[in-house]
Specification:
single chain; about 325 residues; alpha/beta
């Protein structure tokens, strides 16, 4: 099996607080480190009541202080929202605090809608079409390129691996062209997974950072002692996807027994499609799902996604998922 990492959206439940969600994230990161997960990812989202990771670099500092050795990274920073120099300074600071542990994944989506993107950067001429140029500018700041005429301090000279994240063919081509590792968001946008990985590997050009292609793909895993319990805990994320797709996002809701079966056929079909890269069940069920996903993708790293309402159930699922991977 490839390396396993974990993506945490730092969910906020309907009865919880942001402070509790952040405390849970630190506890979950410690747990993932103990279990042997290779990397702990935190993603940038904005204006969403159910996600507490908007200030991604601050959350990563919180995670870093709670752990000792696990790699921690942005999965990712939505670079069109920010000036590249600011990101170089933030992640240069993180690398100084936690040397040799920081990864910087970069995406071109806003992490919300265009109104939020404009509010964040306040430059209407800056948008996702500038993403390749922004990546190159960020690389230049981290390398201390004299042609910039200014320095990112902290940041200059920081040895921070950059990643390109994506859910389309654009990111695959860019990662291949720049010789960077590539991560595909198949946990919620699986349509272009196979073609994107194929393009990335075929078009990859070695770089100073990476000699050979390195591909990661995301996979939802909901593991419990019984299939019934796994189906139950998975229903909170299923509710969240339905709410998002129907324009009514909010805080994470408690699990509902039989939730998926209660939906009309069109809603069930949406869930089946969006969450096709998933395994729900016992250790054996998740092991079979991981094996099939690995056979399909040949991923060097599988990024586990698992938003579960109950914190202890989430920790237990994380443990059983690692047990499933090691059984292979």
């Amino acid at each position: 099996m490839p390396k396993l990492s974990f993506l945490d959206l730092v969910p906020v439940t309907d009865t919880g607080t942001i402070a509790q969600s952040l405390a849970n994230a630190a506890d979950l990161a410690r747990h993932a480190e103990t279990l042997g997960y290779h990397r702990y990812w935190v993603a940038e989202h904005h204006g969403m009541a159910g996600i507490a990771s908007a200030a991604t670099s601050v959350v990563l500092a919180h995670i870093g202080h709670a752990t000792r050795a696990i790699r921690i990274g942005a999965g990712g920073i939505m670079l069109p929202n920010h000036a590249p120099m600011v990101i170089a300074e933030q992640f240069g600071t993180l690398e100084a605090l936690f040397p040799g542990r920081i990864d910087l994944g970069l995406g071109r989506a806003p992490g919300s809608d265009q109104r939020v993107a404009h509010a964040l950067r306040r430059n209407l001429a800056s948008d996702e079409r500038q993403f390749p140029q922004d990546v190159l500018e960020l690389q230049a700041f981290l390398a201390g390129d004299d042609r910039l005429g200014i320095r990112a301090v902290p940041g200059e000279g920081a040895n921070i691996p950059l990643w390109i994240l994506g859910s389309s063919l654009f990111g695959a081509r860019l990662a291949a062209m720049l010789g960077l590792p590539y991560a595909f968001a198949s946990h919620f946008a699986p349509d272009a997974l196979d073609e994107a990985l194929d393009i990335y590997r075929r078009q990859f050009k070695p770089s100073e950072q990476l000699a050979e292609p390195y591909a990661a793909a995301a996979f939802n895993a909901f593991a419990a002692d019984t299939r019934e319990e796994a189906e139950l805990i998975a229903s909170s994320q299923q509710q969240a996807f339905v709410a998002l797709r129907t324009g009514n996002p909010g805080r994470m809701k408690p699990p509902i027994a039989g939730y998926k079966d209660s939906l009309p056929p069109n809603a069930r079909a949406i869930l089946d499609h969006v969450l096709q890269c998933s395994a729900i069940g016992t250790v054996d069920d998740v092991a079979a799902g991981l094996a099939a996903f690995q056979a399909r993708t040949g991923a060097d790293e599988i990024i586990i996604a698992s938003s579960i309402y109950d914190h202890d159930a989430r920790k237990h699922s994380l443990m059983l998922t690692m047990e499933a991977a090691r059984s292979l």
